[in-house]
Every structure is written in C-alpha cells, then in structure tokens.
Design a protein that fits this description.
By secondary structure, this protein is mainly alpha-helical. The chain is globular and about 60 Å long.
C-alpha cells in the first residue's frame, strides 16, 4: 500500500493544475467573508462571526473537483492504463487515491481555515468588532469546515471513478450542488433536503449559508457525509474492479 501512496503523492507533485485549483479555496473564503461584511453583516453579532468562519465549507466544492481529478483526470490523459499495469490490484489503487486525496483535502481545509481567521480578524478590527476566536463554537465551525473538505475530496474520488469522463463528472457534481439540491430543498422542504450532501456539509459548518431553516446537528451532518463518502468509495472500488480500462 505504501508504494501506491508514494506513487499518488509523486503524481501530485508533478502537476500544477490540482494545486492551482486548491489555491482558489482561500480566495473564495476571503471573498465570501468580504461580501458578507460589505453587504451589511453586523460584526457585533456572534452569528455573523459564525457565518464568516463557515465559509471554509464552501471551499469543499474545490476539493470535490480535486478528488474527481484523481481518477477521471487519469482516464482523460490516458495514464490510468499505466497505473493499473504498475499496480494490478485496482481496489488498492482506488484506496490509495482516497487516502491521499482526503489527506490533501484536510490540508486544503486547514489553509482555508487560516484564511478565514485572518480575513475575519481584519474585518472585525476594521469595523470595530471583537473577534472571539477563543470561543469553542468558533473552533467547532472551523473543524466542521475542514471535515467537509476531507469528505468532499473522498466523494470526488468516487465520482471520478464512476463517471470517468472528466468534464461530465465535474459538470454533474456542480449541477447537483447548484441545481438539484436547491430544487430539492424547495420541493421536499428542508426536513428531507438536510440529508443531502451539501446540506449535511452546512450542518458540519454549524451555519446555513443557503437560508435553510432546519439543519442536522453537527455530529449528524458529519455522519451523513461520512456515509456518502463511504458509499461513493465502495461504489468506486466495485465499479473499477468490473469495468474495462478502455
């Protein structure tokens, strides 16, 4: 297993695209916090601080795409054949990708958390507010955001293995988040929609950025996302074992 993990890490170090994608995460977080304050967010309201820090979870959209690149990107560039020839046990290949990309997702979440802390501190000082980072709720929100980044990276690996066309996989993932979950929330109500992946990630962040009234508790959102990640991982392994490479 260790040679597989080293191989995946070596691939990542030779590619710029995935790192440029992840580098956009902190920028999105900073832009979101800036928009929150510029649109009239009250820095004296503790809920506003929670909402600001919860933007770390938005960066999970990028770790989702990052995870998709793990498998679908190899199919697009034709390197997946060499990977399976070097390591014939395909299940282990997918497992190694899940481990490496989840780890990088965690690192990306931590960087986005630092960006959120810095941006929030700067805006709170500029607006005369008191930034209460020592509060336990702040760390729960940030930890939830990091966990969401990890989960979506793993889900992305699964999606990339199931939908091997890179453009199709990315388009399907973004359409699900932007359209399907939003429509589902309106049609079936937040009581059922909160069990969907993006709503579960909002529960992990402990703040709804989409004005959803009913979220799962943080631990519930974590378990739901863990379940989705495990389901996509299992489906990816089973599908990869049965499909032809080409």
């Amino acid at each position: 297993m260790l040679p597989l993990i080293r191989s995946e890490l070596r691939k990542l170090t030779t590619l710029r695209g995935p790192w440029l994608l992840l580098a956009a995460g902190p920028l999105i977080v900073i832009a979101g916090i800036t928009g929150l304050i510029q649109s009239g967010g009250d820095v004296h309201d503790p809920a506003t601080q929670a909402t600001a820090l919860a933007h770390v979870g938005i960066a999970a959209v990028l770790t989702l795409i990052f995870g998709i690149l793990a498998v679908a990107g190899e199919y697009r560039h034709g390197t997946i054949t060499d990977t399976y020839l070097s390591f014939p046990r395909r299940g282990r290949v997918i497992a190694a990708k899940l481990a490496v990309y989840a780890l990088v997702g965690a690192a990306a979440g931590l960087v986005s958390s630092l960006a959120a802390i810095a941006a929030t501190a700067v805006w709170w000082q500029a607006k005369g507010g008191t930034f209460q980072l020592a509060a336990g709720s702040a760390w729960l929100t940030l930890g939830g955001g990091v966990a969401a980044n990890v989960a979506f990276a793993a889900i992305g690996v699964g999606v990339g293995a199931l939908v091997r066309n890179l453009a199709g996989a990315v388009a399907a993932a973004l359409a699900w988040i932007a359209l399907i979950e939003g429509i589902a929330g309106q049609l079936v109500g937040s009581g059922l929609a909160r069990w969907l992946p993006f709503y579960a990630s909002e529960a992990l962040d402990r703040t709804s950025l989409s004005a959803t009234a009913r979220l799962l508790p943080q631990w519930g959102g974590g378990l739901v996302l863990l379940g989705y990640a495990a389901a996509f991982a299992a489906a990816a392994v089973l599908t990869t074992l049965k499909r032809d490479v080409t």
